[in-house]
Write a structure and sequence with these properties.
With 641 residues, the chain is α+β, with helices and mostly antiparallel strands. Among the domains are: 2-65, no CATH class; 172-298 and 511-551, Nucleotidyltransferase, domain 5; 419-504. The chain is 43% helix and 20% strand. It contains 22 helices and 17 strands. It has helices at 47-61, 81-92, 95-106, 114-127, 132-139, 157-169, 171-186, 253-262, 280-288, 303-310, 333-348, 353-364, 374-384, 390-401, 419-444, 454-464, 494-503, 518-526, 529-540, 552-576, 583-589, 619-627; strands spanning 2-10, 13-26, 30-41, 72-79, 192-201, 224-231, 237-244, 270-273, 292-297, 319-321, 324-332, 410-417, 476-480, 487-492, 506-511, 593-600, 608-614. The protein has a nine-stranded mixed β-sheet, sandwiched between helices. Strands 1-2-3 form a three-stranded antiparallel β-sheet, with no helix packed on it. The protein has a three-stranded antiparallel β-sheet with strand order 4-16-17. A hairpin with a 5-residue loop joins strand 6 and strand 7.
Length: 641
């Protein structure tokens, strides 16, 4: 049924009539039309008549899908796609349910919807990270305000703070519940666990656990906290820790290992840590708990690495793997102690190799139960070198004593050389040395330098090597007058340069895994980058810094909320995107909006209706929503009006 215009001619004059017609089908003739009603000559209808006619039809037949062309008013556009997207992953992990259950166990009187408040704070950090007060305003711009079970929640910021307090009370239990859920959903690999730490700074200096320390944000002027994160092999965060801001890397390992062993019941795993984590105590603790390890080594500071690198030809006998040259070296502690003792004595005294056999024989007889005593070794030292100085004897003995309980051990090192990085490091160092040489030439060639006092020259030298440039000072020997101690020139320290060249492009790993091929150890260590990527997301995706809280419990809860946000991101990246970048998917889903508009149906009567509508979902948006299990992102069932 439809309106149309018919024409007829009478007495040579043409007339046009507005009629209502319908389509009909006649046998033998096919489709045709039949007039149902003739509304009269079309010239007799004014624009107002047409509007009244349409309005009458809408009213009589209750055609609410139709409205006046100028009667539509957009009331608000709410964030929708990103909300339901992250909420779906949150629900897949059953986080609200787990939080509610654990909070009730801790506090049976708790009636606050902690799970929902925490969810909103976590989802906020995934899309538009704001302060907790900012979250209350952000919710008013999202579809949360129209969502069932959320629309009636009070949005005063105190409810969010109280939810944070409850969240912190169940932290350990919730993390373990998440760990089990991840294991059930994705069968995560805990045969390798990665651990690393970072720091983040405060604007406030009143938090009890904030203090100055090594700043990974390059903000030494601000107090900070230290955050440690353990991830599975795939990159899921399974445990996090918050330490005081001046905590050193290696001192955090004991806490981590103990909790993984006794709280998570992880009986067998290989603990992978970065170079700052390794100490004799940490390795003993790992071995004591039955954990195997792959650890980066600070090879410039490690005595055994110095032996391997500075006195071995590392340019040969490498196997190639993924652009690296790698070489395995097994070192017995006794062998190292013989090398070290000989090096110390030779540096200060003339050493007869035949007489040194007295000490070598004694060292080879040591076992892990041996408890060396200085009095016994003093006689041996004196038998090796006549009138040996006490300080040298003490130094050698301290080096031997340091490895007590490890004398029979054999350490497995994997030395890796990146030749491209080696060339780059050498080129960079040469450029700096040339630059500083010119500055020193300029300083000492000044005509009036002889008339300047010692303090002036020292200040000028300090300016040349201040800040990050101080590490290049060791390559220069400043020549000074023996009497006045005033600097008058310089020369290159070739010994320091040669020593540094040995370490260019090299990194070293230490492991007690005897069953893994060297390249497998390197591959496992390289996966530690997942934690580094997570830290980058911690600071740039969920925007953890700066921390604006000052109560210790709120600081710890804030960190936990950020870690939960990263968990959602990791689940999406690893399980749905195969570790691809999330930028494009998140941009696409954020385009989906919940539109609320007001429709006016009549100019004569005050008949209006508030209508919700989801913006049309594009094919690419449907693809991303479908990934996480949202089949119909335009569904309005979860909203109330």
């Amino acid at each position: 049924m439809f309106p149309r215009v018919t024409k007829s001619t009478k007495n040579g004059t043409s007339y046009e009539y507005l009629v209502i017609s319908e389509s009909i089908r006649k046998k033998g003739k096919g489709s045709t039309t039949r007039n149902i009603a003739n509304l009269g000559n079309i010239k007799n209808f004014s624009n107002q008549d047409i509007s009244n006619l349409i309005d009458g039809f809408i009213k009589i037949f209750k055609l609410e899908n139709f409205c006046l062309s100028d009667g539509v008013e957009i009331l608000e556009s709410l964030e929708h796609g990103s909300i339901i997207f992250w909420q779906k992953i949150w629900q897949e992990l059953d986080l609200s349910k787990a939080i509610k259950k654990l909070v009730r166990i801790k506090n049976k009187r708790a009636r606050l919807a902690v799970g929902k408040y925490v969810e909103m704070m976590v989802v906020n950090r995934c899309g538009d990270p704001l302060s907790k007060l900012g979250v209350t305003r952000w919710i008013e711009r999202t579809c949360y305000k129209e969502m069932k079970e959320y629309s009636e929640l009070p949005l005063d910021v105190t409810y969010f703070y109280r939810s944070m307090d409850h969240l912190l009370e169940v932290k350990d239990d919730l993390e373990f519940a998440i760990f089990e859920k991840l294991n059930n959903l994705f069968s995560i690999n805990i045969k390798l666990t990665f651990y690393d730490i970072t720091s983040t700074f405060f604007y406030s200096d009143t938090c009890p656990i904030s203090s100055n320390g090594y700043s990974r944000d390059n903000r030494p002027d601000k107090v900070q906290i230290v955050i440690g994160v353990v991830t599975s092999y795939e990159g899921y965060p399974i445990k996090h820790f918050v330490f005081e801001g001046n905590t050193k890397d290696e001192t955090t390992v004991n806490t981590v290992v103990q909790q993984l062993k006794h709280e998570y019941n992880i009986e067998e795993t290989t603990f992978v840590g970065d170079r700052g984590m390794i100490t004799k105590l940490n390795l003993s603790r790992l071995e004591g708990e039955g954990f195997e390890y792959i650890m980066g080594v600070k090879h410039r500071q490690d005595e055994i690495c110095n032996m391997l690198i500075s006195e071995q030809n590392l340019g040969s006998n490498y196997e190639t793997y993924n652009g690296l040259k790698i070489r395995e070296r097994k070192v017995k502690v006794k062998t190292f102690l013989i090398w070290k003792s000989k090096k110390i004595i030779r540096k200060h005294c003339d050493l007869d190799d035949e007489r040194f056999l007295l000490l070598e024989k004694e060292l080879l007889s040591l076992n892990n139960k041996s408890a060396p005593k200085f009095k016994e070794y003093k006689n041996i030292f004196e038998g090796i070198v006549e009138r040996i100085e006490p300080k040298i004897s003490n130094k050698v003995f301290r080096g031997i004593k340091k490895y007590q309980g490890k004398y029979e051990d054999e350490l497995r090192y994997i030395i890796c050389l990146n030749e491209e990085r080696k060339r780059s490091s050498q080129k960079k160092r040469e450029e700096y040395i040339l630059r500083f040489s010119k500055e020193l030439d300029g300083l000492f060639s000044k005509k009036d330098i002889g008339s300047k006092d010692r303090a002036f020259v020292e200040i000028a030298l300090h300016k040349i090597f201040e800040g990050y440039k101080a590490k290049f000072k060791k390559f220069f020997t400043i020549e000074k007058d023996p009497k006045t101690k005033k600097a008058f020139g310089y020369r290159l320290n070739q010994e320091a340069l040669d020593y540094e060249i040995n370490f260019d492009g090299i990194f070293v790993l230490l492991s007690n895994r005897s069953d893994l091929e060297p390249y497998k150890i390197v591959e496992s260590y390289k996966n530690l980058k997942e934690v580094e990527t997570l830290f980058d997301d911690l600071k740039n995706f969920v925007d953890i810094r700066p921390i604006r809280h000052w109560l210790e419990k709120r600081v710890r809860a804030h960190v936990f909320i950020c870690i939960l946000s990263l968990l959602l991101k990791r689940v999406f990246e690893i399980n749905y995107l195969d570790a691809k970048a999330v930028t494009e998917p998140l941009e696409e889903i954020s385009k989906s909006k919940l539109i609320k508009y007001k429709v006016k149906f009549s100019k004569r009567e005050d008949r209006i209706q508030i209508i919700p509508k989801i913006t049309t979902t594009s094919p690419i948006q449907k693809q991303y929503f479908k990934m996480v299990g949202i089949k119909n992102p335009m569904n309005l069932e979860k909203f109330v009006w």
